[in-house]
Amino acid sequence: MKLLFTIVFLVVINLINCEDIKEEEGVLVLTKSNFKDALKNEFVLVEFYAPWCGHCKSLAPEYAKAAKILSEKDSSIKLGKVDATEESDLAEEYQIRGYPTLKFFRSGSPIDYNGGRQADDIVSWLLKKTGPAAKELETLESVEEFLKDNQVAIVGFFSNKDVDEYKAFVSAANSIDEYPFGISTNDDVFTKYETESGKVVLFKQFDEGKAVYDGAFDDDSIKKFILSQAMPLVVDFNHDSAQKIFGGDIKSHLLLFLSKEAGHYEKYAEPAKEIAKEHREKILFVSINADEEDHNRILEFFGMKKEEVPSMRIIQLQEDMAKFKPDKADLGADSIKAFVQTFLDGKLKQHLLSQDLPEDWDKNPVKVLVSSNFDEVALDKTKDVLVEFYAPWCSHCKQLAPIFDQLAEKFKDTDSVVIAKMDATVNELEHTKIQSFPTLKMYKKGDNSIVDFNGERTLEGLSKFVESGGLEDAAGVPDVEEVPVEDDTPQKDEL
């Protein structure tokens, strides 16, 4: 009797302590008190979000749609969400540093989610992580259903699974989480899709409808084929496509700035598809709807005004980002083709933003630099030139401004010293790339060697730096924050 009482007591206590997990649109609402209960499920994807975050709001409907798709498939995978602004202990425990951050828990152990943010991408990534790399498609009906359910699907046709081609296909499937893979050994399927054993076909519900692989059967070659063929010939830029655009292997992009309201997509984007097809493994064609207010910053980033639309640019996303501008504003097929070919031939010069030089640029103690007068002033070998690279919107730059003015006033009568500033959001230099705001660099007299200032941004700290010719920068004192350039530069989810 005592043992029975103990068991009943423990069960009751457990029920009292186990909070019911609420759901919103099929997504578990997780808190510190129910988080461990949720992780009793073998597979759980958790979104850590902030209610005010725009990217979180954009993700919400796709996340809910993914939960619904998984539920309809009777999947054991659960989707949950945590308001990280309310559940700060959970956010700290899992080192959440930005929103949204998604973590995938397998039997309680987390890994970072690095898939797309559309419902199909989320589902595909999760199914890859919880099942076989390639789904067995045993019947004609299963293949038809597989292709119907996915915008992009890759199917390997193999009569014999012992061959090297099959192994290379499975290896590629294991390395790509973005798209679903299937395998069929059914002769009826081969006949229906007019293929044969040893073939790999990428099916897509856009453009040509499918692409047949005819290259060497190794992991890298198959992967390159899939990642290039799975993207539309002209990708429309939006929040959902951004990660695939920037996360892909193709780092050169032709950007077509168009207006949907003006009918530019039909006039320019459609004809561009044929050119994109010729170069699809070398350069990615991307359309950007200039009518959307959210895209204004992209125009600003390229120094463009809405009046210039339709227009095009090329951007190269290597270690240092490079931008290229055509000689004339013409988006005819011949002009696009020539612009792309000249770029691929390495004959285009980078397009650098520059303001017009103000007439009174040297009127005040702090000299104003733009791209056109930078080298003449900063690389004067008779002077030590301290330059602040700033952004007008940067709060840290605004805090520094009165101190910088005092510094310039202090050295205005010293012939061998120049204190200057440049708005680095609208002026670019081929030889100097700025990573954060404000950035302070001294161009030393004699050899023009560059010394970065990393000390305390006070009048005393900056004065010591200038007086010592860049040898002393008050190192060791706490530095103030910097604003990364990418906070204002279109990146994976903003370009």
Note down, in words, how this protein is organized.
The chain is of the alpha/beta class and 495 residues long. It has helices spanning 2-17, 35-38, 54-72, 88-93, 119-130, 140-149, 164-175, 187-192, 219-229, 242-247, 264-278, 296-301, 333-344, 371-378, 395-411, 459-467, and strands at 23-24, 27-30, 43-49, 78-83, 101-106, 109-112, 134-136, 152-157, 181-184, 199-204, 210-212, 234-236, 252-258, 284-289, 311-317, 321-324, 366-369, 384-390, 417-423, 436-437, 439-443, 450-452, 483-484. α3 crosses α5 (119-130) and α7 (164-175) packs across α9 (219-229). The radius of gyration is 29 Å and the shape is globular.
Helices and strands, with pairings:
Blueprint (H helix, E strand, L loop, with lengths): L1 H16 L5 E2 L2 E4 L4 H4 L4 E7 L4 H19 L5 E6 L4 H6 L7 E6 L2 E4 L6 H12 L3 E3 L3 H10 L2 E6 L6 H12 L5 E4 L2 H6 L6 E6 L5 E3 L6 H11 L4 E3 L5 H6 L4 E7 L5 H15 L5 E6 L6 H6 L9 E7 L3 E4 L8 H12 L21 E4 L1 H8 L5 E7 L4 H17 L5 E7 L12 E2 L1 E5 L6 E3 L6 H9 L15 E2 L11
Parallel strand pairs: 2-4, 3-4, 7-9, 8-9, 12-14, 13-14, 17-19, 18-19
Antiparallel strand pairs: 1-2, 3-5, 5-6, 8-10, 10-11, 13-15, 15-16, 18-21, 20-23, 21-22
